[in-house]
Amino acid sequence: MQAFLDQLWIARWPLWDGLLLTAGIAAAAIAFGTLLGGIVGVQLAYAPWWLRLPFRLYVDIMRGTPVLVLILAAFYIPAVAGLSLGPTEAGTLALTLFAGAHIGELLRGSLQAIPPGQAEAGRSIGLTFPQLLAYVLLPQAARSALPPWINTGVELIKGSSLLSIIGVGELLLRTQEVIGRTFMTIQFYIFAGIVYLVINIALDQLGKSLERRVGQH
Amino acid sequence: MEYSLHFGAVWASFDRLLSGLAIGLALAVVAVAIGTVLGLLAAFAAVSPYRPLRSLAGLYVALIRNLPLLVLVLLAYFALPQIGIALDKYQSFAGALALYSGAYLTEVFRAGLLSVPKGVIEAARSIGLTRLQTNVSVVAPIMLRNALPSLGNTFIGMFKDSSIAAAIAVPELTFEARKINVDTFRVIETWTVASGLYIAACVVIAALLRGLERRFPKF
Amino acid sequence: MNKPQPLLAIRGLTKQFGAVEVLKGVDLDLDQGDVVSIIGSSGSGKTTLLRCVNLLEEYQGGDIVLDGETIGYRSVNGRRHRLGDRALSRQRAMTGMVFQSFNLFPHLSAAGNVMLGLRKVLKLPKAEARAIAETWLARVGLAARADHYPSQLSGGQQQRVAIARALAMNPKLVLLDEVTSALDPELVQEVLNTVKGIAEDGATLLIVTHEMRFARDVSSRVVFMEQGRIHEEGPAAEIFGNPKSARLAEFLRNTRH
């Protein structure tokens, strides 16, 4: 145990950097993914079928493809298309596209679950469609989409570990590097596992307390 | 820059992609089969009147669902030998995925158990079935039928997650695709075909499941 | 002359849900072949009483003696202990219960519903269980529906299957809990006729009902419950024709149309 703690102390800064990168990647993916998902969800719920089609296609492709395949595709494809994306950018792009599809789909579900009387009531007082969306529909949908949205955050933290496979120096890759030097395989994998657990459970609790607060209306 | 699509090199290795797909499916089947047993046990524990059992089931779900699957896989493959448990890459991946799917299936079955009407359970008790007989003959069949759609979605999710076996060099679809990508530099073609295969498999599985659901009408 | 011991003897039964006293000391006897209806406003405790007899509810005081056997609890050094799962199951099988909401097993056919107890509790071979199930389904007029699933049956038919399910176990006593309350009006009569038929066959019935005319026609005795106690009891003609207490008279005035 003492030997492990010594090694942990030696490796504290690389691991800390890895943790920050994990958190940063997940935060960027949830932020951009939510923007993207907001557009996608509204289109899926309200657009005419010809406009809905490309969004539906995007969502189904993202949801039918493993995240790791998205990550590898985002890592290899930009180079041949003449774009230079580093592994971190490519991985974050893949996670963002994944999150956008998931959030879009769950927002669509929430929007379509709102009783039609709400939209009718909004229109009857003369709201335009963007006003209706902003003041009536999205606030209600956001409330019911909150728990799965938090869950998407947990999935992104977990998914970011896959970026280690394309060489992004996030928590898991840093852990593997420490293991390569110290051969303390069990100890450091369990340590990394505990760090993921703590982040995700904290996120989960944050979600629950948010839920309680919004639920009080 | 010039890039024109040539699928020929990818088609030449198509059989490798297909065998990779089969390995992924097999891993998912084995893992979900074991995970179903784990999930059933944990779900009954989660709704049992005994607090220690409930806590144990809750701990299992919270622990596994909040860990990245890749960490579980690396633990099973690289760390277990350190304490004398040496599994090959297939066994360690299937084991990790089974443990992982079991946590998701616990939630699926728990919801299924709560969906069994209380009155139907009372009717079974009232004709003299013991608690165990009630669970086996009445609760389990109703719950399994109600859980079938979520069970199917979990299976599809686990099949997609079988791609992570590539990280420990299991020659499944993603691993083969990456190799073809590196060997041929047909980057766009390779990933389009790989992604297409995953999606096609998901669509076929989903259609089979819908057929199964139709054969057992919802109660 | 010694009166033979009653088939069912309820003695000083008390039950609380938390702080609420639902049964405040109920005494009731049923002899073999009796058909007793319990009437009373909702919340009077009549359904709870029935559920206690079927051991679906725990109760805090008093005894229920069925055919000479005290059921549900045993006393050790003056302390009451709820019996174990196995003993409770055996005792529950001695009474049949028909529920307000049918509670058929949705994954089993009509015959399968009737057969489950025969197979698992009475351990009968499959062919014999099937034969008994068919006999009872024919008795309730559903011979042709033996292989239909509950979702393919009307409410009235479902309730008749539930009656067959309870009676096929050959219980000493059948408990019927508002068996027509969940039915559309046009389906009520077929179920009441079925119950009348089994009463005429000599089954011992304890019935909770809101159907006053039915209670009057079918019962040898009627019990009026009020606030967790038996307020008045007597032959059907007496209870309906000549109520003694003002409370019963008022209840009958409010329910009779």
Automatic annotation (TrEMBL), chain A:
Keywords: Amino-acid transport, Cell membrane, Membrane, Transmembrane, Transmembrane helix, Transport
Pfam families membership: BPD_transp_1 (PF00528)
Coiled coil (UniProt feature): none
Residue ranges crossing the lipid bilayer per the database entry: 20-46, 67-85, 186-203
This protein's record includes keyword Transmembrane helix: yes
Domain ABC transmembrane type-1: residue ranges: 19-207
Membrane topology: Multi-pass membrane protein
Subcellular location: Cell inner membrane; Cell membrane
Role noted for this protein: Part of the binding-protein-dependent transport system for glutamine; probably responsible for the translocation of the substrate across the membrane.
PANTHER family noted in UniProt: GLUTAMINE TRANSPORT SYSTEM PERMEASE PROTEIN GLNP (PTHR30614:SF20), MEMBRANE COMPONENT OF AMINO ACID ABC TRANSPORTER (PTHR30614)
Family: Belongs to the binding-protein-dependent transport system permease family. HisMQ subfamily.
Official protein name in the record: Amino acid ABC transporter permease
Protein's organism: Bosea minatitlanensis
UniProtKB/TrEMBL annotation, chain B:
Protein name: Amino acid ABC transporter permease
PANTHER family the UniProt entry points to: GLUTAMINE TRANSPORT SYSTEM PERMEASE PROTEIN GLNP, MEMBRANE COMPONENT OF AMINO ACID ABC TRANSPORTER
Family: Belongs to the binding-protein-dependent transport system permease family. HisMQ subfamily.
Keywords, comma-separated and alphabetical: Amino-acid transport, Cell membrane, Membrane, Transmembrane, Transmembrane helix, Transport
Membrane topology: Multi-pass membrane protein
Span of domain ABC transmembrane type-1: 21-209
Gene3D superfamilies: MetI-like
NCBIfam families reported in the protein's UniProt record: HEQRo_perm_3TM
Coarse class of the protein's main subcellular location: membrane
InterPro entries linked: AA_ABC_transptr_permease_3TM, ArtM/GltK/GlnP/TcyL/YhdX-like, MetI-like, MetI-like_sf
Annotated CDD domains: TM_PBP2 (cd06261)
PROSITE patterns hit by this protein: ABC_TM1
Pfam families the record matches: BPD_transp_1
Spans through the membrane: 20-47, 59-80, 191-209
Subcellular location: Cell inner membrane; Cell membrane
Function: Part of the binding-protein-dependent transport system for glutamine; probably responsible for the translocation of the substrate across the membrane.
TrEMBL record, chain C:
MF term (GO), any: ATP binding
InterPro entries per record: AAA+_ATPase, ABC_ATPase_HisP-typ, ABC_transporter-like_ATP-bd, ABC_transporter-like_CS, MetN_ABC_transporter-like, P-loop_NTPase
Sequence similarity: Belongs to the ABC transporter superfamily.
Membrane topology of this protein: Peripheral membrane protein
Keyword Nuclease among UniProt keywords: no
Annotated compartments: Cell membrane
Domain ABC transporter as annotated: residue spans: 8-252
Gene3D superfamilies: P-loop containing nucleotide triphosphate hydrolases (3.40.50.300)
Keywords assigned: Amino-acid transport, ATP-binding, Cell membrane, Membrane, Nucleotide-binding, Transport
Predominant subcellular localization, coarse grouping: membrane
Protein name, as recorded: Amino acid ABC transporter ATP-binding protein
